[in-house]
Amino acid sequence: MTREMPNKLEGTIDGALELLDRQLLDVEGRMLGKVDDVELTQTDAGLTITALLTGQVALLHRLGGSLGSNLVTGYVQLRPSEKNRTRPWRLVIGDVERLDSALHLRVHREESLRRDVETFRLGALTGMNVLEPAGRRAGSVLDARFAPGAGGRLVLRALVVGEGHPGGLLGYDRRPNMGPWFVRRIVGWLHRNTSAVDVEHVQILWNNREVRLVSPLREIRREALRR
User: What pLDDT does 75 receive?
Assistant: First the structure.
């Protein structure tokens, strides 16, 4: 008898590592595509995951900057008559039943996909420069850490700040016994200055594509050690 894998949506997850590029399967196990970005909405609880985005436009937007914009424009011009082609397909998080090696829906694929609305996106958050109050660069956003909040929705709790690429920690910072010993040591050394910064210490400036710390990173780390 096959043992069902635990549902990761019931605990703390790192969005870039555990959501982006995962396969989407409907209630019958049919593929819809993969998660190309994640919709974030500001709620009373904080920045909350409200939908998963899929499709070429979502993936191109993750490139950011003028390159991403130019590629989206070119993609839209291939079929200018298609309505809302600049917006990716959107799957509300309430239609997701569980997360393991894939994202499993509780509905059929024909019932799930709608065009996306203008919101914040995980793909825009990861990679943002992180600046200290004096303007000195402290690194970039490698990942965004979410945990269940009111109603079970996943709410942003911390930003993983360091040097490297989004998702580059590969989960080694949260799973001390994961993988071969020498790989853990290498990843740990490469990310020795990486920190998880609680959302209370950050201001996300979406228009500027940067994150501002309300206190110097050194002070934030000291406060975390005292807890």
Answer: 47
